Amino acid sequence: MQLNSPISQLETFPLTKDSSPEEVDIDVDVPLVKNPANVITGETNTFLGQRNNYLAYQKSEELRLTLLGHRHERHLIVLQDFPDPDALSSAWTYQLIAQQYDIKCEIVYAGTLSHQENIALVKLTGLPAQRWALPTLKSKDLSLYQGFILIDNQGTTSQLLSVVQQAKIPLIAVIDHHSLQGELKSEFIDIRPAVRSTATIFTQYLQSGLLSLDNSISQHVKCATALMHGLRSDTDRLMQAQEEDFIAAGYLSRFCDVQLLNAVLQANRSKRVMDVIERSLKNRIIQNNFSIAGVGYLRYDDRDAIPQAADFIVTEENVHTAVVYGIVHDEDEELEIVIGSLRTTKLTLDPDEFIKEAFGQDSSGRFFGGGRTSAGGFEIPMGFLSGGNENSNYAKMKWEVFDAQIKQKLLRLVNPKDNPIHQG
Question: Where is the DDH domain (predicted)?
Fold first, then answer.
């Protein structure tokens, strides 16, 4: 059957397992995704005419049925420890969609917001995300929640995953655009690595009618603005965007507050971020058009300086790929973790494959990192070696060991012939 068939064929194509009106007891006013709102128009016929967008329509219907089965419940939306605009905006959209089914969702993350644009996004839009630091979880009654959702991550970058699993909270949905990180047992899964941003996936849900945006509702306008920022951020200001991303951006432009978006984008870099960029320039080594820089120790709240430094380093002449990493530490919890970011302009380099091959998996089979088109990241817990940095000599020695090990693993792929390293 051709997927670019007329709308009438779409209506008869079985999207999910059979369910009759008698089987689904609908006692709340919820939207049905039969004729997608804002889709069957002249300018967006491609949404129904192309294979990828048909899949988006099918997934929207599956998500609707999943939400119907969890009416009146309370859920957690678990984000990566350091959520970016793509994750934050997509989680907010899910929360608004779920509200229509009388599902109360709380958006939570265990880390912090340190990127100036992320802080501005949350403050200026009132985006309802909460930090759940691990020490504060003792006061949380997790028995209140009947399910949790992973958005823009698959649990590998969240300290909260083990907490909710230990509380025996079932995984309801996973919605992400990164490559598959491992086996997932979830009621609903929509993982599309070919899509440039999770915000694009959620915009397609909106286009399919899961939520009808209204310009007269302030929360809808702010959420659409956040989605535009998330989409723009993960497509490198639309430079890496594909057709479906442009279609999504065009749809969001009807509701987006341009002045609000500009205010978010004009947030200034902090002095600490500039210091990390300076360190990455000073410490970088360049080999085969790869620039690799270790920046030493960073405060937990400055973690987002690492991807910003990678964004800057990759713009250097004759560099197509930049990797920046450091040891991020939380003094209150004596928590330390090696965090790194990769940025590339080389079309033939797959960040996901590169990082997985470089750093491998932990004892449970989970990869230490992964990626998407043009970007990737990795997080390596230091475990037993965490803390003890009151002794400056010990801290220096510890950094030198990790720095050398990370460089060795990266250079094994960058230059298999082991040519001499030269300073940038």
Answer: 77-230
